[in-house]
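User: Could you go from structure to sequence for me? I need the amino acid at each position, not a summary. Structure tokens:
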């Protein structure tokens, strides 16, 4: 899944879409998480990022 998150971030970089810098950061963060044994802080950050990405892409609940 990580390669898809990084591809989405890369696509956003090239889009010039306003406000995409935060979404790019969130996608990149999620892609860099280890597949298991995330710390509580990583889990909390990931949850926040997923909610923000759902809002950005207009897909409520898709990623969460």
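Assistant: Here is the amino acid at each position, in order:
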């Amino acid at each position: 899944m990580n390669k898809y998150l990084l591809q989405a971030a890369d696509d956003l970089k090239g889009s010039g879409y306003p406000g995409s810098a935060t979404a790019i950061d969130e996608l990149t963060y999620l892609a860099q998480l280890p597949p298991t044994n995330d710390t509580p802080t990583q889990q909390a950050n990931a949850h926040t990022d997923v909610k923000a990405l759902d809002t950005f892409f207009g897909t409520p609940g898709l990623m969460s």
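One structural detail worth keeping in mind: The radius of gyration is 12 Å.
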